[in-house]
Amino acid sequence: MSLIRLAYASEATFAAKALEKGVEPHVARILMASRRNNGKAGLVGGLYYGDNRFFQYLEGEESAVQALYQRIQSDSRHRNIRTLIEEPIANRSFSNWSMKYVPVSTDVQAFLSRHDLTEFNPAAFDSQQCEEMIELIRRSSVDQKLVHFEEKGGEGAVQPTSGASGMKVGLMTVAACLVLALAAGIALY
Q1: Which CATH number do you get for residue 114?
Q2: What letter does residue 16 receive in the DSSP assignment?
Q3: How many domains does one find in the chain?
Q4: Is the pTM of this model over 0.90?
Q5: Per-residue pLDDT of the chain (189 residues; tens, 9 = 90+)
Q6: Torsion on CA atoms 165, 170, 175, 176, rounded to nearest 10
């Protein structure tokens, strides 16, 4: 079994729509299909979408990565696809994500600022910037330092909002479900 990693950049062919729950609707559909299919194929990685461009990083069995990349290259939602990295690896570094999505985040904005970039254009990244972007995606999959954006103001302006409140609600929901399950289990016992 030979593992490889592959990173590519592409431009979206669709016009971005208003964000729904922090994710552009076209991108949300891509993510749902990726998460469903990548897990079955043993692929892991991450995706960033910004300024109508994609940066995607994949790891997995060479044949599975190549098959997916061929499908992406014929996907009408992508154009100007450019391979940034393609090389063998010894081990996976995204072992628990079939496809991690990093929404627009302060980490990416800081990355762009550090490199004096005014827009997200991964096709123009050098190898060091590619590695930094991969590490940014990897880190966000561990510590969840994400900032979701919601529409506010006129003309599609977006403002950051903390994802912490959503996480708190999710944790409280899980806790409530566990308590109910325990209570039901005790009642049946």
Answers
A1: 3.30.70.100
A2: P
A3: 1
A4: no
A5: 799 999 999 998 887 776 555 677 788 888 888 888 888 888 888 888 888 999 999 999 999 999 999 999 998 889 999 999 999 999 888 766 556 666 656 788 889 999 999 999 999 999 999 999 998 888 874 444 333 323 233 333 333 333 444 444 455 555 555 555 555 555 555
A6: 100
CB contact at 8 A, 137 and 130: no
Provide the token pair at 85.
Answer: 């990295």
Spatial neighbors of 105 by CB under 8 A, at least 6 apart, are 140, 145, 146, 147
Domain enclosing residue 59, as ranges: 3-162
DSSP 8-class letter at 13: S
> Is 145 contained in some domain?
yes
User: Hey, what long-range contacts does 124-131 have (CB within 8 A, 24 or more apart)?
Assistant: 125/9, 125/55, 125/84, 127/85, 130/7, 130/84, 130/85
Report yes or no on 171 lying in a domain.
no
Q: Is residue 72 part of a domain?
A: yes
Q: Give the C-alpha separation, 75 to 13, whole Å.
A: 10
What is the identity of the amino acid at 46?
G
